[in-house]
Specification:
Elements: H1 3-26, H2 35-47, H3 64-79, H4 87-109, H5 111-117, H6 119-126, H7 140-145
Helix pairs in contact: 1-4, 3-4, 4-5, 5-6
Length: 158
């Protein structure tokens, strides 16, 4: 059962590291596979008040959101060999991948909900510093790494 808290911590650490170093650092290069995040997703969200219409597209459309799903599925596949020795850990990582996509999608289809339930993610996109607030589901590693920067003029959560 120790695999459950270890899976939650690992997933949040991966969220932070992947978002910062892959989606932003590598994603700034327009020729990178990861460019969709910085050049498509961030641009769309800033232009549309946190809304990202790509999440309304059919699942077989090759866009930023389906690339996100592909990365999550690849990550889940990568940990699958650990299932025989760490089933709770792997199961928790599967849950976290599904939850990441669910929460991220909901936040970008319902900006009001995002402001109230994921203020750290809202601050990442709408605040003055897109190089902070790397976590999406929970801000644990942003607090641990000192990268949580609350936006000062965001209205308070209800």
């Amino acid at each position: 059962m120790i695999g459950i808290p270890l899976g939650l911590i690992t997933a949040n650490a991966v969220e932070w590291v992947f978002h910062k170093h892959v989606l932003h650092d590598m994603g700034r290069d327009r020729h990178s596979f990861w460019a969709f995040h910085w050049h498509d997703h961030h641009r769309s969200v800033r232009m549309n008040g946190f809304l990202d219409e790509d999440y309304r597209q059919p699942p077989l459309t090759w866009n930023a959101q389906t690339k996100e799903v592909a990365a999550l599925v690849a990550g889940a596949a990568a940990v699958t060999p650990l299932m025989p020795v760490a089933p709770f850990f792997v199961g928790t990582l599967y849950y976290c991948a599904w939850n990441y996509y669910r929460v991220h999608k909901k936040s970008h289809l319902d900006p009001e909900w995002a402001r109230d339930h994921l203020p750290w993610h809202y601050d990442h996109h709408m605040g003055p510093n897109p190089n902070a607030n790397w976590c999406v589901t929970k801000p644990w590693f942003d607090h641990l790494m000192g990268t949580r920067e609350p936006m000062q003029n965001r209205r308070p959560a209800r």
